[in-house]
Amino acid sequence: MELDIAWTVKWLQLCAEAMAEHRVELIELDRAIGDSDHGENMDRGFQAVLAKLADGPPETPSAALKLTAMTLMSTVGGAAGPLYGTAFLRAATSLGDAARIDPPAWAAALAAARDGIVARGKAEPGDKTMVDAWTPAVDAARNAADGGNADNLAVLVAAAEAAEAGAVATDPMVARKGRASYLGERSAGHRDPGAVSSALILRAAVEAAA
Amino acid sequence: MTVSLVVVSHSEKIADGAAELAAQMAPKVLILPAGGTGDGRIGTSLEKVMAALDKAAGGDGAVILADLGSAVMTAESALEFVDDPAGFLLADAPLVEGLVAAAVAAEGGADVQAVKRAAEGARGPAHPDGPLGQQLVAEGPVTGQGPDFTGDFELVNQAGMHARPAAKIAGGLASLEADVTVNGVDGASMTALMTLGAGKGSVLHVEAWGADAERAVNYVGGLVQAGFGEP
Questions:
Q1: Of residues A183 and B126, which shows the higher confidence score?
Q2: Quick check: keyword Transmembrane in the entry (chain B) (predicted)?
Q3: How large is the ipTM?
Q4: DSSP A55-73
């Protein structure tokens, strides 16, 4: 499967589906350690992305990601808006005008997205945030792409699986950033909702290529 | 032209209210609120912030004040999209006190850097690090440099030092090339001046350093002796 504009649009549509499907789960996770709006906000944000894509389909993967960035930043409302917005924006910049994404370009786009999230939110690995899903995803995508003969799907799968494991690994962590950090030790024993939604986004990328 | 101000808050009411409050002290300054989401919920909207930045663009620059973490992130994100990001400075300041201090400084003709400093100097007296003014004073003896000009002026107006006189002093000093202390606090900080609690008959001891030190002392003296135009 080519990772072209058709794949990109399908990926974003599947992101919207995943956020709608996991809306309540994300709300529950966020209620435990945050302000319980993450599911609502992500669902609203990606529904708005769907509407924008329907208005006028972009021509390149990069243009589609930039449109997503702007839309999320304007509609999500919570901290996830600027964080995901910056992630999609940096990924768009990293891809440039390319019509197709190859494995090294995907790994580079994920790294740019992760760096954007870190720059915007100032969180580090281990702070119990979405960075804990993105960082292993970036490493896994790079490793998978490094051989030079990896196929597209293998790189997407590697990133998604690493992000999912990264989200699970936030369970015992004590939050040091975001609303959950106000809870201190009591934040341990809960999964970080931002790490979960990040893993959903990277899993949708796999499903769009399957 | 004066420096413009952009207020980014999670709440539309907070942004509008803070702008309204600051405008009372600074009628000439363009203060643009960008609070809440596009559909009236609590949160921040890139679109609203971008619209405010667009209106504030050009001219003498603009200073942005934001309330909680994600408002700061939205403001930073918006700056990635503007044509001239160098024209905007994001102040790390308490929203209401910082905005009022920034507005007063802008009204007095301060440049964009000085307006940002005024906002950041507006931490309340309860701040654990203490008001900025106290830190400035501590530097005097350390460097061994006495003030370039000093003056002592008795408050003659009935109400003494309150918000309007403090705004006039701080606003005027912010546009001068001088570091000024009044009874040991930062003269360019309206909130610091108000904490002096100086009533009628109190003497203000003014010390000034820098190119405009003499003008700064005369400026404060002129205002005090004229009773700030009050009875």
A1: A183
A2: no
A3: 0.72
A4: H---SSHHHHHHHHHHHHH
